[in-house]
Design goal:
Blueprint: H1 46-49, H2 64-78, E1 84-88, H3 105-112, E2 120-122, H4 123-133, E3 135-139, E4 144-146, E5 149-151, H5 157-166, E6 175-180, H6 182-192, E7 206-212, E8 217-224, H7 234-243, E9 249-256, H8 268-273, H9 286-303, E10 311-315, H10 319-335
Parallel strand pairs: 1-3, 1-10, 6-9, 6-10
Antiparallel strand pairs: 2-5, 4-5, 7-8, 7-9
Length: 342
């Protein structure tokens, strides 16, 4: 946990012409070691170690009718569905290159057919989410309407940080949960952390970023792992509880999306031709079990801020991130206050 200033909107430097963030332009340097979360590699991903839990029956979808059937199945398993407004944030989508002119020849084919990471969501899908999950959406202004869809600008760590240090949550919410993507989280942690090896995030892992609302600065960063039930060591948890849960600070909980159908295959043709593996990359049904297994831990955290309804839920514009956010809110809301708030 870091309490020193690491970001200042008045001293930041940002080169709009660069295609990648540059942490060397930061005036304030963040120094922290990940002591609170298990270090991992991609070999440690749950889908690799426990692949039998991720049944692909729900992946083979290509029509809105099939998609609605899947979502209704998830709705039935969740139980009560609660009305909620979700915020869609720009800049935190997966990195996507619409032009293949500049990329190496060996990756051109995969990028050309990449529908998994396109930062768009169609009006039809938004309407389906509204219908099935009784939801509303607040689409931030940087996300533009394009034909029959919303399109987010490309991934940008610096612009995302610019956004959250200025952002004011709706309806006096006390903290914000944003479902995003693995590469974005890795890029974000690399940008914030000097002298760190690359940090890998499994599905449903979280970075918590604490923002000083008065000074418009980032006060601290911690990583909460799904496999650790999102618990920190006692010292860091105590520091947050004693110093950063008050009206001067706001926490952003950035979570990697569910394990999706696209994570279960490297078959480019399948991702291109079957929407359930591509642009509608589905959360596996087992996601509901995974969220239920950590619901008490997440509710324990959010109760410190006033409960799940004190949290503004949101995501990137990409389908699987939006679906994860919808599942999270409704499961946590149904589980309510855990029996042991300590």
């Amino acid at each position: 946990m870091i309490s020193s200033k690491i970001y200042n909107k008045n001293t930041r430097k940002y080169n709009k012409n660069t295609r990648k963030y540059n942490k060397n332009t930061r005036k304030y340097k963040l120094q922290f070691k990940i002591k609170n979360g298990t270090k991992m590699t991609k070999k440690d991903y749950r889908i690799k170690k426990n692949s039998e839990n991720y049944n692909s029956n729900n992946c083979n979808i290509n029509s809105l009718k099939q998609l609605e059937s899947n979502l209704l199945l998830y709705k039935e398993r969740i139980g009560t569905i609660h009305n909620n407004k979700y915020t869609i944030f720009p800049y935190c989508n997966e990195r996507y290159k619409s032009s293949i002119a500049r990329i190496p020849i060996h990756t051109k084919i995969s990028k050309l057919f990449d529908k998994v990471n396109r930062p768009v969501i169609s009006f039809d899908i938004i309407n389906l989410f509204i219908k099935v999950f009784n939801s509303q959406f607040n689409i931030l202004s940087n996300i533009k309407k394009s034909y029959n869809q919303y399109k987010s600008p490309k991934q940008s760590v610096e612009k995302f940080i610019d956004l959250i240090v200025e952002y004011i949550p709706k309806n006096n919410k006390k903290c914000v949960l944003i479902v995003t993507h693995s590469k974005f989280l890795s890029n974000l942690s690399e940008y914030l952390c000097d002298n760190c090896t690359k940090i890998i995030f499994d599905n449903l892992d979280i970075i918590q970023i604490i923002v000083n609302k008065i000074d418009k600065e980032i006060a601290g960063v911690v990583i909460r792992r799904f496999n650790d039930n999102y618990k920190l060591d006692d010292m860091n948890e105590q520091i947050i509880n004693n110093n950063y849960i008050n009206d001067d600070y706001i926490s952003y909980f950035l979570m990697r999306h569910c394990v999706g159908c696209h994570n279960s295959t490297k078959n480019i043709f399948r991702k291109h031709t079957i929407k359930g593996y591509g642009e509608w990359a589905m959360c596996f049904e087992y996601t509901i079990d995974e969220i239920n297994s950590v619901a008490n831990s997440l509710n324990n955290i959010f109760n410190k801020y006033g409960g799940v309804d004190s949290v503004e839920f949101g995501s990137s514009v990409i389908f699987r991130a939006m679906l994860t956010s919808l599942l999270l809110y409704n499961i946590l809301k149904n589980r309510g206050t855990p029996p042991n708030p300590n």
